[in-house]
Design brief:
The protein is built from 10 helices and 4 strands, in the order H-H-H-E-H-H-H-E-E-H-E-H-H-H. The protein is α+β, with helices and mostly antiparallel strands. It has 3 domains: 18-54 and 186-234, no CATH class; 58-175, 2-Layer Sandwich (Alpha-Beta Plaits), CATH 3.30.70.1130; 236-270, no CATH class. Strands 2-3-1-4 form a 4-stranded antiparallel β-sheet. Strand 2 and strand 3 (134-141) form a beta hairpin. Helix 3 packs antiparallel against helix 8 and helix 5 (101-111) crosses helix 7 (144-165).
């Protein structure tokens, strides 16, 4: 009966399972060097991808002030509260028009290049500035010169196009287009950080998964926790090296140990 009860308790323990969080944390901390190596390797790989395999892009932009009355000028003394609110609403309309077919095709004509509407629509984007009457127009291209030329063309034709399309409104350029002096993307820092995080997370997941699915029992405590059976005896590891040539030195293959054993057993054989 005792054997059956112990077997039942053992099966119940195995079925119940459970995760030894303390052991899991210790394993992760013990394997920190694997996580560090994975982090460094993944960060270096991501940086190489960003530098050598991702084509850089450049961005030029200009900003403009939108007014809902053509006769008004952008100063607070001549504008009423309702004018400001109406201008803020008008910014959203301007954003749609500036990325529409009419304005972009006029920009293509002024550039004298063989751009299609689809080409320019993928390069041009707009962004209202913090609930103000200011709108920013961005142009992203493969070279700084191309980005500058398209942005400058849009900057030139936009005020007249807006006045023609939305009668009674006006658009005034605030910040003119400047030649981009650095790439817009890719960001080497972002690629490196993201790559490092991915590498660390993947290695951490590998360590945790290996620990969770490892069925080997590595200690007496682990044996008791898993099967609920008390440990009554432990067989020593006969292959471990010891500081002397006692019982636990069996299996040592170094020459010094063999010589000392020969000296001890020699007189008895004689």
């Amino acid at each position: 009966m005792d054997a059956q009860e112990n077997r039942f308790a053992s099966d119940k323990n195995v079925d119940r399972g459970g995760v030894d969080v303390a052991s899991l944390v210790k394993t992760v901390l013990r394997k920190w060097w694997m996580i560090a190596i994975a982090l460094l390797v993944a960060a270096a790989a991501a940086l190489c991808v960003a530098r050598f395999f991702v084509h850089p892009t450049y961005q030029a932009h200009f900003t403009a002030y939108v007014n809902n009355k053509q006769s008004k000028q952008p100063n607070t003394d001549s504008l009423t509260n309702s004018d400001i609110l109406a201008s803020q609403e008008l910014v959203r309309t301007y954003s749609k028009i500036l990325t529409g077919n009419t304005v972009l095709m006029k920009a293509a004509e002024s550039l004298g290049e063989d751009y299609t509407y689809r080409d320019l629509s993928e390069m041009v984007s707009t962004q209202p500035q913090d609930d103000t009457e200011i709108i920013a127009v961005y142009v992203t291209a493969d070279s700084p010169e191309e980005a500058y030329n398209i942005s400058a063309a849009l900057e030139t034709i936009s005020p007249d196009c807006m006045s023609e399309i939305i009668v009674g409104s006006s658009m005034k350029i605030v910040d003119t287009t400047q030649m981009p002096d650095m790439r817009h993307s890719p960001s080497y820092t972002k690629y490196t950080v993201v790559g490092a995080l991915i590498g660390a997370v993947l290695m951490l997941g590998y360590i945790v998964a290996r620990q969770l699915f490892d069925d080997n029992v590595k200690s007496e405590e682990g044996l008791e926790d898993r099967y609920g059976i008390p440990v009554v005896g432990v067989i020593p590891d006969m292959t471990k090296k010891s500081s002397d040539d006692g019982y636990y030195s069996y299996g040592r293959s170094d020459a010094a140990s063999q010589k000392r054993r020969a000296e001890k057993t020699g007189p008895q054989n004689k």
